[in-house]
Amino acid sequence: MLIRTENIKKTYRLGAVDVAALRGVTLDIEQGEYVALMGPSGSGKSTLMHLLGCLDTPSEGKYWLAGKDVTTLDDIELARLRNKEIGFVFQSFNLLPRLSAQANVQLPMAYAGVRSRERAERAKELLTLVGLADRIHHRSNQLSGGEMQRVALARALANRPSLILADEPTGNLDSHTGAEVMALLDGFAEKGNTVVLVTHDQHVADHAKRVIRLCDGLIETDR
Amino acid sequence: MQLLDLLKLSLDTFRTHRMRSFLTALGIIIGVMTVIAIVSLIQGMNYEVERQIASLGSNTLYVQKFGWGMGRLDFDEIGQRPDLVIEDAEAIARLPGIDRVAPERSRTVSRITWRGNRATTVDMVGSTPSYATTTNLRVETGRFISSDDSLRKRAVCLLGGQVVDDLFGNEDPVGRRMNIEGEKFTVIGVLARKGSFLGQSQDNVVVIPLSTFEKLYPLPRNRMARIFGGLSIGATPKPNVPLERVLDQVRELMRRRHGLGYDKPDDFGINTQDTLREIYRNITRVAIIVMIAVAGISLLVGGIGIMNIMLVAVAERTREIGLRKALGATNRDILWQFLLESILLAAIGGTIGIIIGIGIAKLAEVLAHLKAAAPFWTIALGFGFSAGVGIFFGIYPASRASRLNPIEALRRE
């Protein structure tokens, strides 16, 4: 079991009012699963993604990732977990614009303390894997949207994470480049990576083997 | 994240924001530059002043109407004091520890002319043959004043190198007759050059016999004019007699000659090289305090500038911080990233300041002939202080960056 959540809740304070974003989600995701998290805005899917990605901790409930109880970890341990176990893919790519494609891919490895020669080799390998062998030294602001998202995919794989978390990965792309990106994600899943997609797009969700629908902070359906 | 990665990151930021980084570092540059330049100049001046003071005659004391010093002088009281007279000098000369005594008077001469050439604002000294010994004067050509010159009140003079240049150019002045404010004087010798001190020539001088001086320029009736125009008596102790012992002898003698009771303060002053050194030290002490204040203020302002720009950088790079955290940066990684940036900014500014400061010192060396050199401790201090400013003013923005919530940070556009 890679992911196990037990009745996790998340409550935000907005001024004087408490807003419940998640009201008790229990969820198991096996190693190697390809899962889509769906739901309308305000359903709590972003909050769930942040919790699964260890960017935030739940107000209540338990969360185990790769056997670790995330709710008991401190800042440094959370950072290490994000670094080693999770590969993020964002809707807006989030590359550092002044750095080359290679340097962007190397970033998680730098925080993991990987030696620089090894970093460079793996970055080149990964960029070749996503079809950007000829863009290695381009600064990321010289790349097209599709290329940027492919760099982000390569970056997500850098430390061989056990979980790839993709938040609307095609949201800022046209349908053609979006399809290319999805094909790459499909490929990662086929090779045994655990992929969790967060999307409100049914076509994107259709790529996944399992679709979890959230509504008002609770799981509505799980197929 | 390794230190090398962080260093590269900071340097990359400076390269991207060249102008901004330079302007931010400017306060530090100015602060450190001021310290280095002023300390170097003071060092150079110390050296030069020490040389000048030493040239006064290391072992000479001067009996004058009042003591040199930094304090406010009560001229009303000094004006009441008895004038020093030649007989005082003669009495001092008879003291057992005394070797040479040279009474002197001096005034400023507005012009000296010879065949249409003129020298202006020349220091005129009237003294006796011993003057050459008490003040370390050397005669280059011709001869010094003789006792015969004094006795006969001859209108003869020795010239400083500057006066020779102004009046005679390359001609030999010895034996020439020239006009000093309407009086005819014959040149009997030329003094060896002393060089200039802080841009002021020490060779713009003419020496005549004291007796001639007294005859031509008697002391004015005005009490104030008598304070500065009066007699000054230079005296050197015999070899192997310490100056301090002679100092006491001279003081006792003068008190006796002036009939002072034991409870009355001195109505004269005895000045030495050490008196001058003390005055000089007081002046440079003030200069150093002013310098520390200026440097401190500019380092403070520079530090605030750094803090300001680092806060801007943190705000601008909020998304980047969020992303870095998502990719596994710890709070500490982020703290170091921004702290190192501000330390580097300040340290680079400090280094530039050191280089410019040394440059100014070198310039002073060429232009003012000062042996200005920055001592190593100022360089170390300048660098250490600027790095310290980087840490002190960088820690707040850096810790703010490190505490950013990654989710909020990533959401920021």
Topology:
The complex is a heterodimer of chains A (223) and B (413).
Chain A: E1 3-14, E2 17-29, E3 34-38, H1 45-52, E4 60-65, E5 68-69, H2 75-85, E6 86-89, H3 101-112, H4 116-129, H5 145-156, E7 163-167, H6 175-190, E8 194-198, H7 202-205, E9 210-215, E10 218-222
Parallel strand pairs in A: 3-8, 3-9, 6-7, 7-8
Antiparallel strand pairs in A: 1-2, 1-4, 4-5, 9-10
Helix pairs in contact in A: 3-4, 3-5, 4-5, 5-6
Chain B: H1 3-16, H2 18-55, E1 61-64, H3 75-80, H4 86-93, E2 98-114, E3 117-127, H5 131-134, E4 139-142, H6 147-151, E5 156-159, H7 161-168, E6 177-180, E7 183-191, E8 196-197, E9 200-201, E10 205-209, H8 210-216, H9 223-229, E11 232-237, H10 243-257, E12 269-272, H11 273-316, H12 318-326, H13 331-367, H14 376-402, H15 406-411
Parallel strand pairs in B: 3-10, 5-7
Antiparallel strand pairs in B: 1-11, 1-12, 2-3, 2-6, 2-11, 4-7, 5-10, 6-7, 8-9
Helix pairs in contact in B: 1-2, 1-13, 2-11, 2-13, 2-14, 11-13, 11-14, 13-14
Describe the structure.
The complex is a heterodimer of chains A (223) and B (413). Chain A is an alpha/beta fold and 223 residues long. Chain A has one domain (33-59, 75-222): Rossmann fold (3-Layer(aba) Sandwich), CATH 3.40.50. Helices cover 35% and strands 28% of the residues of chain A. Chain A has a 6-stranded mixed beta sheet with strand order 6-7-8-3-9-10, sandwiched between helices. In chain A, helix 4 packs across helix 5. The model of chain A has no long low-confidence stretch (mean pLDDT 91). Chain B is elongated. Chain B contains 15 helices and 12 strands. Chain B has 2 domains: 3-51 and 279-411, no CATH class; 82-267, no CATH class. Chain B has 413 residues and is of the alpha+beta class. The mean pLDDT of chain B is 88. In chain B, a hairpin with a 2-residue loop joins strand 6 and strand 7. At the A-B interface, helix 2 and helix 3 of A face helix 1, helix 12, helix 13 and helix 15 of B.
